[in-house]
Amino acid sequence: MNILTFGPNGSGKGTQGAIIKDKYNVAHIESGAIFRKNIGGGTELGKQAKEYIDRGELVPDDITIPMILDRLKEDDCKNGWLLDGFPRNKVQGETLAKALADDGIKLDYVVEIILPRDVAKLRITGRRLCTNDNNHPNHIAFDAIKPVEKDGKIVCRVCGGELSARADDQDDVAIDKRHDIYYDETTGTMAACIFFKGLGGDTKVISVDGGPSIQEVSDAIMSQLS
Ligand code: AMP
Description:
Layout: E1 2-6, H1 13-24, E2 27-30, H2 31-40, H3 44-55, H4 61-71, E3 81-84, H5 90-102, E4 109-114, H6 117-126, E5 129-130, E6 148-150, E7 153-155, E8 163-164, H7 172-183, H8 189-197, E9 204-209, H9 214-222
Helix pairs in contact: 1-9, 2-3, 5-8
The structure holds adenosine monophosphate.
């Protein structure tokens, strides 16, 4: 099963992707997480990507596109994949569509999580990343997923791991830039989303409201995934 996911930063895309990955045993490929891992590891790719990420801009296509197309060729993708954070603009979308067509790979689902921009922004600033698993949901403003306190420290509610806040999640200008790119229907992420939603054929579109709880959003997606 091959799945593309769309949703503004803060819509819960990563959390839902992790739930789908666990249920269907597909590779969960998160472009942003790949970059952050490389930044953490001090790799050349990380060094190149960091300045763009800190500013809330896209890492250039000539770095990002081959990174993801190569990743799709790895062994764990044979059982299917879920792309999260890619494509992020029209060019990435068109290049991915061509690469899939060239390799005869079918796209089964386009999952779109819809959330108004102001709500997405509020969610971004309060979210915290667990160092053990960045898909453990933790948010300082939502009771259902509030981090817990241990030995006077705020830790992950799922595993007790250390928490951190992403620098680009605390920078107002960077958040707005990321959302400008997401909601841009001409060359941005929505342009790619609209393109893939219009593919037709065997590709099924699942659009859900990202407003309700994690469980409710997950139920809405799962009820339409076969
Ligand atoms: P995310 O974790 O999806 O919010 O991504 C964090 C940052 O990584 C983004 O703001 C971009 O700077 C970069 N990034 C992630 N995915 C892409 C992509 N497909 N193309 C370019 N840059 C990306």
